[in-house]
């Protein structure tokens, strides 16, 4: 991903401040978990889908769909982190290039990066969630089950430290995730 030049210089992070990335396929429960954890920490929750939907609503087109939304969220995250706020990024982040964006931001600002990989280990439940969201879609960007399966084949495995949360098993993951981010 081509990125604009850094807008700020390294700052002294506030104690307990973190850049957290909630990553995983559409429909696994990233957004729900991110919002719940963001309320507990507290942390600003910045969702790539929200930015992408807004760009679509204003007829902003781009040669690489979704690319601009990642850049906008990274810029907003930088602003929040520079102000001393923890940030949770809610994004599929399926490939190394997308993930590198978050790594570089954390390194540039001197804040810890924590990855929460959200999965839904029950394929039937995952499909039910995706199909329910698709049926209630409010914009063209919500993928159907076929597209989610296609994206699964494009999804590069995460390497390195992370917390994996299976939302089909976790009864109360919020506390454990908040502890991991602190």
Automatic annotation (TrEMBL):
<protein>
    <submittedName>
        <fullName>Adenylate cyclase</fullName>
    </submittedName>
</protein>
<dbReference type="Pfam" id="PF13671">
    <property type="entry name" value="AAA_33"/>
</dbReference>
<dbReference type="InterPro" id="IPR027417">
    <property type="entry name" value="P-loop_NTPase"/>
</dbReference>
């Amino acid at each position: 991903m081509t990125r604009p030049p850094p807008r700020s210089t390294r700052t002294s992070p506030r104690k307990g401040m973190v850049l957290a990335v909630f990553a995983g396929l559409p429909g696994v429960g990233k957004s729900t978990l991110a919002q719940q954890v963001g309320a507990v920490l507290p942390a600003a929750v910045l969702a790539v889908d929200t930015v992408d939907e807004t760009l679509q609503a204003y007829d902003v087109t781009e040669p690489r769909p979704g690319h601009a939304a990642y850049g906008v969220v990274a810029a907003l995250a930088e602003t929040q982190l520079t102000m001393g706020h923890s940030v949770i990024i809610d994004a599929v982040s399926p490939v190394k290039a997308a993930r590198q964006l978050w790594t570089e931001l954390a390194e540039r600002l001197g804040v810890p990066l924590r990855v929460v990989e959200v999965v839904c280990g029950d394929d039937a439940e995952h499909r039910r969630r995706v199909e329910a969201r698709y049926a209630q879609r409010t914009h063209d960007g919500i993928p159907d089950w076929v597209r989610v399966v296609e994206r699964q084949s494009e999804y590069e495995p995460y390497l390195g430290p992370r917390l994996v949360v299976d939302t089909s098993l976790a009864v109360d993951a919020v506390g454990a995730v908040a502890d991991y981010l602190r």
